[in-house]
Amino acid sequence: MVSKLNTDKKVVGTKQVKRALMNGKAKTVYIAKDADNRIKNEIITVCNEKQIPIIHVETMEKLGETCNIDVSAACAALLK
Question: How far apart are CA 67 and CA 16, in angstroms?
């Protein structure tokens, strides 16, 4: 179980996570196991290239709760 991401230094959502990865601002990436495979594969590939650790979360709903938002999320990232 992932603890709550109660910090302002995070981004939630595929576009924002991709942007953070490309700008070198992501420290750790969280990916929901039930997210679309195309999205997961794209984010995982970039994380592997940039050697960013990935934490897998059981469901998109659980990741949304962890990020303290009211909707589900495919991915999120903690920022440096």
Answer: 14
Domain 10-79 coded CATH 3.90.226.10: no
Is this model's pTM higher than 0.85 or not? yes
Question: Can you give the C-alpha Rg of the chain in angstroms?
Answer: 11
Residues with pLDDT less than 70, the chain? 1-4, 6
How far is residue 48 from each of residues 12, 51, 67, measured CA to CA in Å? 19, 5, 23
3 state DSSP class of 48: helix
Cα-based distances in Å from 43 to 4, 12, 70: 21, 13, 23
User: Hey, what amino acid is at 20?
Assistant: A
> Taking Cα atoms as reference points, which of 27, 5, 26, 7 lies closest to residue 17?
26
Structure tokens at 49: 């290239």
Q: What's at 74, amino acid-wise? A: A
